[in-house]
Q: What sequence folds into this?
């Protein structure tokens, strides 16, 4: 599904020097994988996730997503690929504060030019699937952390992406809430969704079928 070849990400420093956050990353992720990326702070975990998610375009190397050579795409084409194929779950939730739960779920569908009637049906199905129908008219500030993260996961999968990327998805949650989110990821993966998570938690990593360790920007 994904193949990275010699991916590097660096920031320029003074006098022609560079600070590398990713070094010569060669990685293959198969469709249906559940991959956990681990390593100490500053190892490059989130940087790798942002490259995979096409949030960061300032990298060198080759990136293949299914049969698409991402490194040859223009910025607009990468944006279309991201919006249509990839869902994101963030540690800080990243829900839009001035939108209701319903409206937050509807946003990703608008990027895919789904008709209004189809959006309504898909949002209704997702609200029911995640047992949050009663929360649809509430704003994020009216929800607990666990509820906000649940909405974040629902938003990530509503458009049936091929790939879900999760950055410390349980970092701000109580243990029971975290387990609920991880069990949900496990079910989604069992249904065929490819998942890549960044985590410091050995327990969370065990939900996956592969673990990748990063040190100083290298896969070790």
A:
């Amino acid at each position: 599904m994904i193949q990275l070849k010699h991916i590097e990400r660096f920031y320029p420093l003074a006098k022609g020097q560079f600070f590398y956050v990713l070094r010569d990353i060669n990685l293959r992720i198969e469709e249906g994988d559940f991959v956990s990326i681990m390593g100490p702070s500053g190892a490059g975990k989130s940087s790798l996730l942002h490259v995979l998610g096409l949030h960061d375009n300032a990298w060198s190397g080759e990136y293949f997503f299914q049969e698409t050579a991402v490194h040859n795409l223009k910025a607009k084409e990468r944006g279309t690929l991201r919006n249509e194929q990839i869902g994101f779950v963030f540690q800080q939730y990243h829900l839009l504060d001035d939108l209701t739960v319903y409206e937050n779920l509807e946003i990703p569908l608008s990027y895919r030019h789904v008709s209004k009637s189809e959006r309504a049906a898909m949002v209704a199905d997702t609200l029911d699937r995640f047992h949050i129908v009663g929360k649809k008219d509430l704003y994020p500030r009216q929800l607990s952390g666990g509820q906000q993260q649940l909405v974040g996961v629902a938003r990530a999968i509503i458009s049936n992406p091929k790939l879900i990327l999760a950055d410390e998805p349980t970092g701000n949650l109580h243990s029971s809430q975290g387990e609920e989110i991880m069990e949900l990821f496990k079910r989604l993966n069992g249904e065929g969704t490819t998942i890549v998570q960044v985590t410091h938690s050995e327990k969370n990593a065990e939900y996956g079928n592969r673990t990748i360790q990063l040190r100083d920007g290298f896969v070790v």
Notes: The beta strands are 2-12, 18-29, 34-38, 60-65, 68-69, 86-90, 163-167, 194-198, 210-215, 218-219. The mean pLDDT is 93.
